[in-house]
Amino acid sequence: MKFILFRHGHSLANQESRIVSSLEHGTKTTGGPLGTGFGLSDKGKQEVRMSATSLAYHIKSYSTSTKKQTQIRILASPFKRTLETANLIHDTLQTSFNIGQIPLPEQALDLRERFFGQFELQTPSDDLYTTVWNQDAVNPFHEKFGVESVAMVTQRTTRVVRSEEQKDEEAKEDMEETFVILVSHGDALQILQTAMRGWSGDRHRQLEHLNTASWRELEWCPELAEAHRRK
């Protein structure tokens, strides 16, 4: 099983430099600069299509070189910007590259955005994020400003990975490889990568940042992978 982390495309929240981190605001189809919620901007839609195209080539290249059939599952945070991203990924893979019949994206609540507490709907987002990240580097369990701790985000995002691995173990065929595309948010994916690398949560900003609409293949570090195999 191969996991692809895919950050949502540039959004209307990014465009306004506004933090939209709660389920209440992130899933709405009203409000925001266009009255349609905080989904993708036009720029975001274009960059998702381009990035999904490169992902399609990556998957096809793998299946060609290994002679394995590939199965694809797409899981997405329930926020509007991530669901729109997931649907664009699905359409690009399905219609443009004929990889095979791909199930529609599934919503996964545990892939939701990290909640930023009292900074919700505030601007400028970069300055406010940095305020939180400085505290993360001291204590990954902190909940200052009412934010969700790094530790809690780690727990729920790794739960998604383990759940998918369990499905794979129950239905594995030797001639198949499953790609699971996890469509989520900057902090959630940054923290998940840190956990799968085996690093402590206070180091999550030390990893290379995932830009909007960018994707990265990820696996457990060898020590954690071996621990999983022993279970």
TrEMBL record:
<dbReference type="Pfam" id="PF00300">
    <property type="entry name" value="His_Phos_1"/>
</dbReference>
<dbReference type="InterPro" id="IPR013078">
    <property type="entry name" value="His_Pase_superF_clade-1"/>
</dbReference>
<protein>
    <recommendedName>
        <fullName>Phosphoglycerate mutase-like protein</fullName>
    </recommendedName>
</protein>
<dbReference type="InterPro" id="IPR029033">
    <property type="entry name" value="His_PPase_superfam"/>
</dbReference>
